[in-house]
Amino acid sequence: MTRRGQLVLVAATVVAVALVPIVLASLQLGYHDDVRASADYDDDPSADALRVLERAVATESAQIPSQYAWAARDAAVTAVRTGLRPRLDRLETSRIEDGVHYNITYNGTATQQWRDSNCPSGPDRQFGDCVVDRGVVVQDRVGRTHVLAVGVDLTTTTERGEATVTVVLEPSGRSSR
What we know:
InterPro entries: DUF7261 (IPR055685). It holds the Pfam family DUF7261. By secondary structure, the protein is of the alpha+beta class. 46% of the residues lie in helices and 24% in strands. Strand 3 and strand 4 form a beta hairpin.
């Protein structure tokens, strides 16, 4: 073997030894072709839907006190639910292309529990009664109907499965799960 051949053999050995740590590092990091980058995939698609629902409840509730007296609270609840319907319909199919489907239903039990813990009773309360009607909590404030909360069940279906969250949305932007 010539000096030139020996030099090529030594150089190839050095390169092979240098590649060993790189191969080991890539094996430790792991690779799976189904893993998506976090920027490309939302780990919690329900969070986006809840933000949309919070804004929708705030928007639909804003005009209720100026339009409905307490005696017309049934009509006020109907107006809120009617105003929310197109937004709920759009939201339910908004991410179908991404493999995400939302199903939104009103939850009267959650709003009843919210009312029981958030609406004071007795002689020291500042405002009138709170009433739960079809998943919406309304209160008598100086003879006007005010929307305090809307309870919903949000079921999110993806290729990874199905998750349901019950949330009570307040027009003020606070929500409880």
